[in-house]
């Protein structure tokens, strides 16, 4: 107590640790859990037929069977039953043997698969791991970072998406990427030359009907043969409609009776458009999805997407999050609100019990001491700020304030008996040392199995145990010095039995 000013330095140092170390900790929704399952999404260019897709999927499946000894079962589906109706997508699901029976983790195997599939340039293969916490089936089976680009002008989206994706591809934060708005559906835009058609005496309706009847596959009706009903489809043979030059084989008769080649009446422009136009909150949108490179978290991914947004997009764009990224942002916001609400509630309850705002303030000083221990422990054991560690931090508020309550409440009683502030708090600290040690060690030992990841799905709970143990032990050591010193500084000068 002769150097009480050191307590103020300790408090300031703890607050600095919370800011500096906490700012450097990676953020994520929850640690990736080993679920003995890896999924791959296989996508070929638009227009790929089923036979080619089936061959590619078979080749990829055999490569997984030959290269992954930990696989237990491999299921592949082509097409992928996504509901889009195309044959250019496929899925492969790899079931792994139980985690206790293999040396490598699910994440190690997924990284190997990413390297295996890099050489396949004819198809895009995305390796997906199921998120530990996800809202909805779509979030559970998708890439962790999902960034939504929105704009009222569809042409602006079409212009900026390639540049945005180039930045995502070259970023060291991401591994594997995709965008749902793909301009990969080949189209031929046919524009009728109305002036020339009028000069040659051919109506626009005749030109439109010729194109529709020859190329659209329109159903004219039905006919019955041998007791079965068949559709009557109007369409030329495939060999006569595979290339734009095939329009030369189509003729129309003018009003004078002359035959005119169709390609003399139209202009042809080959282009590519998306199979589907997506909307998000009523705005035309594109969702950019990305996997994370080893050692990176969702927080790193979102920060990188924000950086690319500032570099590539203009002010006409708006962005938001989707899938697991949105779950992460909402979870972080909710737990922060819960943390501050817990602080306020505990302070008000203590103020009512002690009939003072000074004593609760002294007690609440134990919170930054515990938080400093929590963030140091997370950093020491290479853990992240996630929903489990945030729950542990909220629990710490109630667990560590108990130490301050024991000291302050007993010191107040000693002052009622006539002792001065310093003698009262020294006596209280000595008398309450054993209860503080017993309760703190009991709680820390109770959380030890959580920190050691015993039981099923224990890895995700490791940060919870580390936060509780590290925060309690760190606060235990400092509380016995800081609380008495601050009590001697700012506690009310006079306290008697009548006041109490």
Offer a quick outline of the entry.
By secondary structure, this protein is of the alpha+beta class. The chain contains 14 helices and 15 strands. The chain folds into 3 domains: 5-29 and 328-490, Multidrug efflux transporter AcrB transmembrane domain (Multidrug efflux transporter AcrB transmembrane fold, Up-down Bundle); 33-130, Multidrug efflux transporter AcrB pore domain (Alpha-Beta Plaits, 2-Layer Sandwich), CATH 3.30.70; 185-273, Multidrug efflux transporter AcrB TolC docking domain, DN and DC subdomains (2-Layer Sandwich), CATH 3.30.2090.10.
Instruction: Please tell me the CATH architecture of the largest domain by its name.
Output: Up-down Bundle
Q: Can you count the beta strands?
A: 15
CATH class of the largest domain: Mainly Alpha
What is the helix content? 40-55%
Describe the fold and architecture.
The protein is an alpha+beta fold. The chain folds into three domains: 5-29 and 328-490, Multidrug efflux transporter AcrB transmembrane fold (Up-down Bundle), CATH 1.20.1640; 33-130, Alpha-Beta Plaits, CATH 3.30.70.1430; 185-273, Multidrug efflux transporter AcrB TolC docking domain, DN and DC subdomains. Helix content is 49%, strand content 19%. The strands form five sheets. Strands 5, 6, 13, 14 and 15 form a five-stranded antiparallel β-sheet that branches. Strands 2-3-1-4 form a four-stranded antiparallel β-sheet, covered by helices on one side.
């Amino acid at each position: 107590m002769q150097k009480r000013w050191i307590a103020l330095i300790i408090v300031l140092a703890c607050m600095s640790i919370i800011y500096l170390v906490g700012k450097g900790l990676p953020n994520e929704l929850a640690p990736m859990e080993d679920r003995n399952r890896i999924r791959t999404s296989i996508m070929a260019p638009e227009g790929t037929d089923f036979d080619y897709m089936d061959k590619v999927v078979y080749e990829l499946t055999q490569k997984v069977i030959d290269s992954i000894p930990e696989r237990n079962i491999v299921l592949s589906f082509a097409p992928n039953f996504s509901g889009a109706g195309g044959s250019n997508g496929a899925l492969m699901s790899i079931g792994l043997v139980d985690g206790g029976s293999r040396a490598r983790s699910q994440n190690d195997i997924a990284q190997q698969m990413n390297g295996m599939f890099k050489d396949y340039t004819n198809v895009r293969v995305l390796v997906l791991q199921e998120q530990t916490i996800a809202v909805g089936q779509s979030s559970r089976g998708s890439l962790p970072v999902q960034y939504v680009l929105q704009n009222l002008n569809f042409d602006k989206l079409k212009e900026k998406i390639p540049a945005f994706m180039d930045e995502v591809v070259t970023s060291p934060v991401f591994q594997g990427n995709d965008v749902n708005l793909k301009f990969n559906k080949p189209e031929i835009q046919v524009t009728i030359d109305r002036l020339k058609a009028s000069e040659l005496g051919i109506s626009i309706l005749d030109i439109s009907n010729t194109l529709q009847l020859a190329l659209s596959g329109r159903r004219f009706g039905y006919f019955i043969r041998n007791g079965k009903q068949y559709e009557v489809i109007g369409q030329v043979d495939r060999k006569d409609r595979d290339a734009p030059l095939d329009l030369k084989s189509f003729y129309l008769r003018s009003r004078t009776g002359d035959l005119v080649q169709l390609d003399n009446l139209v202009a042809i422009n080959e282009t590519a458009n998306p199979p589907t136009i997506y909307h998000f909150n009523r705005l035309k949108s594109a969702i950019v999805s990305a996997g994370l490179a080893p050692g990176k978290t969702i927080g790193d991914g979102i920060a990188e997407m924000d950086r690319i947004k500032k570099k590539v997009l203009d002010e006409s764009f708006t962005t938001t999050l989707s899938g697991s990224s949105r779950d992460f942002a909402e979870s972080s916001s909710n737990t922060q609100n819960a943390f501050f609400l817990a602080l306020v509630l505990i302070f008000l309850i203590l103020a009512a019990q002690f009939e003072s705002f000074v004593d609760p303030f002294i007690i609440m000083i134990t919170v930054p001491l515990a938080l400093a221990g929590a963030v140091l422990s997370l950093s020491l054991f290479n853990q992240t700020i996630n929903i489990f560690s945030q729950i542990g931090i909220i629990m710490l508020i109630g667990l560590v304030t108990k130490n301050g309550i024991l000291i302050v409440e007993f010191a107040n009683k000693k002052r009622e008996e006539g002792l001065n502030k310093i003698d009262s708090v020294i006596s209280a600290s000595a008398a309450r040392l054993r209860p503080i040690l017993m309760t703190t060690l009991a709680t820390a030992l109770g959380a030890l199995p959580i920190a050691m990841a015993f039981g099923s799905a224990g890895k995700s709970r490791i940060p919870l145990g580390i936060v509780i143990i590290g925060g309690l032990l760190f606060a235990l050591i400092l509380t016995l010095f800081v609380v008495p010193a601050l009590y001697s500084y700012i506690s009310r000068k006079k306290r008697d039995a009548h006041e109490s």
